[in-house]
Amino acid sequence: MATREQRLQINPTRNLIANLPNPKLTNMSSNITYHPSPVTPTIRSSLRRQQGLTIWLTGLSASGKSTIAVALEQALLRKPINLNAYRLDGDNIRFGLNKDLGFTPKDREENIRRIAEVAKLFADSCTIAITSFISPYRADRDLARQLHEAERPGGEKGVPFVEVWIDVPVDVAEQRDPKGLYKKAREGKIPEFTGISAPYEEPLKPEIHIKSAETSVEDAVKTIVKYLEDKGYLSAPAEAKED
Length: 243
Prior knowledge:
By secondary structure, the protein is an alpha/beta fold.
């Protein structure tokens, strides 16, 4: 059976739209023209006094992604950091935007494609987007990164993408199992369950690696915030001069 990477035949310069599962969507998107804004990313960032980026939390179910994401959002929004941030949660998104998707490999791919596009829009608006999705396939996460880091219209550099691997052994996740999902998966009641009957492809070079079985939520947030500070992502950008 072909791997996810082989099926996609990844090309770093290919737009994500080429991987849409529904060919009708691709055809519908062929007769469109991008409408640029006079407010460039640099000007927008200067006006809002903030840089936008996406923090992509990935890991098994019950790894602690959502808990850490909630705490991180609070830390970024409140003083002393006091920046605009918004959390996009895997379960929450399936109540609305992605409610038409299941958990087959193809649906998982489309789930991540959509959220990558949404996260980029948030980040492009100079908001810190925090996503917490299992996102089990390495190729899908790589495509999300490529989407963010691609040069923006007008020639400006792309949006920063910070991959955070919330790492936990399967047996620890099963012991936690707050939603009872692992138990149902072991009983065969949930097909295609990541870590049990479906694969999780571990990140190869995440910007941040947190072992949640050994790290408190508070320390996990501190680790992420320190990385952001060290990279200058939390600093106000220089004032841009408009023509």
